[in-house]
Write a structure and sequence with these properties.
One of its GO terms (cellular component) is cytosol. It comes from Bubo bubo. It is found in: Membrane. This is Oxysterol-binding protein. One of its GO terms (molecular function) is cholesterol binding. By secondary structure, the chain is of the alpha+beta class. The chain has 15 helices and 30 strands. The strands form 6 sheets. It has a 6-stranded antiparallel beta barrel with strand order 17-18-21-22-20-19. A hairpin with a 5-residue loop joins strand 24 and strand 25. Helix 3 packs antiparallel against helix 4 and helix 13 runs antiparallel to helix 14. The longest helix is centred in the first third of the chain and has 76 residues.
């Protein structure tokens, strides 16, 4: 339909009860794309694959809908269609190849129309433009026209009354003339009709007058209500702005007070504890056995693979490549200090409540000098956990290291309250550490709305990781929620173990008043699709009244039969430990009626511990040693690489005013390119943007349509042939 929103039930199994163009059958519900044929199974009902029209449905879709304007439409074989958008995938089946082609054409046309409607409503290329002066003048012009039309209506009413009265007088004069009887009857009939006409005209005039009176009364009423709301909003804004200023003054006074260090106040909100709280009803209890033997069969390396900056005047060697003893490249250990720019956060954020974060026009003052692609690559900081996992003898032991790796990616976020740059469409980022650490990584921004990045990492030490992440975010006034959508895949080359998991929700608190701080909450389920082992990790949200350790993470590793083997425990900002379970038993029943499980374990072993931050990190956006090197200029990279993005480079150098001007130029350039590409796509009924180094495929494990690396980037780098790269900067 023109609205471009397709509501379908979650796919399950093929339904034998539907006729032409059958879809998939769930628990007693079948969804048919066209008129269903044949009988249905008892208890089954048919739901139309309805397509909601209107922009309201596009903006606020219910669960189980796909927005066609950003959906990918693919054909699996002669009769199947695949619709996907942001991690949600539907498989549609037609009765014949001809029917499937009709549906593909119809869906493509609906998608093209939805794109046009979306563009007509607003320019959502990433940063919305403020209401223009022309919009305001158009409103005034419309009101003026309406007023003149009302005056015309009143004039017409007066004329009708005047001409009606004249007609009545003329007819009365005709009646008084000496005419034959027949003529007199006809004149009398005409006079009656004229009377009816006059009565009707008067009724219409009275109705118009009543309508005008009612409209004016209600207009005044709504105007007063609107004025009151405006005044209330202004008062609220002034109050909150005053609070924010007072808070800034207090912070400056606190920083200037003698004997108080910055570290003494940092994290005070998160680490504060209350006494009045019950324990979590689902807490597992871990009893450690003293002097127990070690249980992880892989031996820990005596030194980390982490990059250590070499001392000045010396050349260090990477001992892992002892065959050729290549000198390790010297990388930078600092960036320019963050300028002390004062900015009223509330003045920008007050108009953004409830909006998608990627559509809010944000100055670079809220950013850190890294793109989202670089932040995604930063997840590899503790890659040595995967190198150790390769050597594990059992899949459950390996799962412990994979779980620790999945938690380690959050450790860099604890002080990182600034927003990364939203990448331009087609922007890439490479991290080639093949000689130093054995891996090379490539990211590409494959979609702009919703923002989506594809990532591929190959390690010659025995593993490959890939993912497509879409970031959904909402500003709720007091806090900001960031929800990463999409699965992370990790495969070990020798064993074929294939792990899949998804990220938890990140929340930025104290947006308006107070010190910004970040929390992670939710659950991660890691599944080994080869052995069917599982690990359930729980990120406990911070609570002022909880007696738990802040930022706590707990979990259990179990095999395909559901038997628990290891307990995981720790915090997402500091370290993760695992303990081998020797015995499990049922404990007391919680107040919610759930059975507690008590595990008797061996002594815990530390699998992962966070590296200390570099000196002066608080003035360098709290970057880790790895993060400091991510935006370091490097030769031979693609012309679309994030290192070459001019506004980000200016911001890192401390030239924020110039960076803001450059950011606006890049975004306007991207808008123009997108409009041209979408216009061409509508004409040709083709996909608007096709990634350069990745391609869309149905994942064999999850059934989702995701972007996977198709190859060619590193070969192009070797040849320095970047002719296919778009000009985005």
């Amino acid at each position: 339909d023109a609205g471009g929103v397709m509501a379908l039930k979650q796919p399950a199994v093929p339904c034998p009860w539907l006729g032409p163009a059958e879809l998939w059958c769930g628990a007693g519900v079948c969804c048919a794309l066209v008129q269903p044929g044949g009988a249905l199974a008892p208890g089954h009902e048919v739901l139309d694959a309805t397509v909601s029209s209107g922009m309201a449905e596009m903006a606020h879709t219910c669960r189980g809908t796909i927005n066609l304007s950003t959906a990918h439409i693919d054909t699996e074989d002669s009769c199947n269609i695949v619709l996907s958008n942001g991690g949600r995938t539907y498989h549609l089946k037609a009765n014949s190849e001809v029917e499937r082609q009709r549906w593909v054409t119809a869906l493509e046309l609906a998608k093209a129309k939805a794109i046009r409607m979306r563009n007509n409503q607003s320019d959502d290329s990433g940063d919305e433009e403020p209401a223009s002066q022309s919009d305001k003048s158009e409103l005034h012009s419309t009101l003026k026209t309406l007023s003149s039309k009302l005056e015309d209506l009143s004039t017409c009413n007066d004329l009708i009354a005047k001409h009606g009265a004249a007609l009545q007088r003329s007819l009365s004069e005709l009646e008084n003339l000496k005419l034959p009887a027949e003529s007199g009857e006809k004149i009398k009939a005409v006079n009656e009709r004229a009377t009816l006409f006059r009565i009707t005209s008067n009724a219409m005039i009275n109705a118009c007058r009543d309508f005008l009176d009612l409209a004016e009364t209600h207009s005044r009423k709504w105007q007063r209500a609107l004025q009151y709301e405006r005044e209330q909003r202004i008062r609220l804004e002034e109050t909150i702005e005053q609070l924010a200023k007072q808070h800034n003054s207090l912070e400056r006074a606190c920083r200037g007070a003698p004997g108080l260090s910055a570290s003494s106040t940092a994290g005070s909100v998160q680490s504060a504890k209350g006494e009045a709280s019950d324990e979590d009803e689902e807490t597992e209890y871990f009893d450690a056995m003293e002097d127990a033997p070690a249980f992880i069969t892989v031996t820990a390396d005596p030194k980390h693979h982490r990059y250590e900056p070499p001392p000045q005047g010396h050349v260090s060697y990477n001992e892992s490549t002892c065959k050729d003893l290549l000198p390790k490249k010297r990388r930078r250990t600092r960036i320019p200090d963050k300028p002390n720019y004062s900015l009223n956060l509330w003045s920008i954020m007050k108009n953004c409540i409830g909006k998608e974060l990627s559509k809010i026009p944000m100055p670079v003052n809220f950013n850190e000098p890294l793109s989202m692609l670089q932040r995604l690559t930063e997840d590899l900081e503790y890659h040595e956990l995967l190198d150790k996992a390769v050597k594990c003898e059992s899949s459950t032991e390996q799962m412990c290291f994979v779980a620790a790796f999945s938690v380690s990616s959050y450790s860099t976020t604890v002080h990182r309250t600034a927003k990364p740059f939203n990448p331009l469409l087609g922007e890439t980022y490479e991290l080639d550490r093949l000689e130093e650490f054995g891996f090379r990584s490539l990211c590409e921004q494959v979609s702009h709305h919703p923002p989506a990045a594809a990532h591929h990492v190959y390690s010659k030490r025995g593993w490959t990781l890939w993912q497509e992440i879409t970031i959904a975010s909402k500003f709720r006034g007091k806090y900001l929620s960031i929800m990463p959508l999409g699965a992370i895949h990790l495969e070990f080359h020798s064993s074929g173990n294939h792990y899949v998991w998804r990220k938890v929700t990140s929340t930025v608190h104290n947006i308006i008043v107070g010190k910004l701080w970040i929390d992670q909450s939710g659950e991660i389920e890691i599944v080994n699709h080869k052995s069917k082992d599982k690990c359930q990790l729980k990120f406990t949200p911070y609570s002022y009244f909880s007696r738990d350790v802040p930022r706590k993470v707990t979990g259990v590793v179990s095999d395909a039969a559901g038997k628990a083997h290891y307990v995981m425990s720790g915090t997402w900002d500091e370290k993760m430990e695992c303990s081998k379970i020797v015995q499990s038993s049922h404990g007391s029943t919680s107040t919610e009626g759930k059975q507690k499980t008590v595990y008797q374990t061996l002594s815990p072993k530390v699998l992962w511990k966070k590296y200390p931050l570099p000196e002066n990190a608080e003035n360098m956006y709290f970057f880790s040693d790895l993060a400091l090197t991510l935006n370091e200029p490097e030769e031979r990279v693609a012309p679309t690489d994030s290192r070459l993005r001019p506004d980000q480079r200016l911001m890192e150098s401390g030239r924020w005013d110039e960076a803001n001007v450059e950011k606006q130029r890049l975004e306007e350039k991207q808008r123009a390119v997108r409009r041209r590409r979408e216009a061409e796509a509508v004409e040709a009924l083709e996909e608007g943007y096709i990634p350069l180094w990745f391609e869309r495929k149905v994942d064999a494990v999850t059934g989702e349509l995701i972007c996977v690396y198709k190859g060619g980037y590193w070969e192009a780098k070797d040849k320095q042939d970047w002719s296919t790269c778009p000009d985005i900067f």
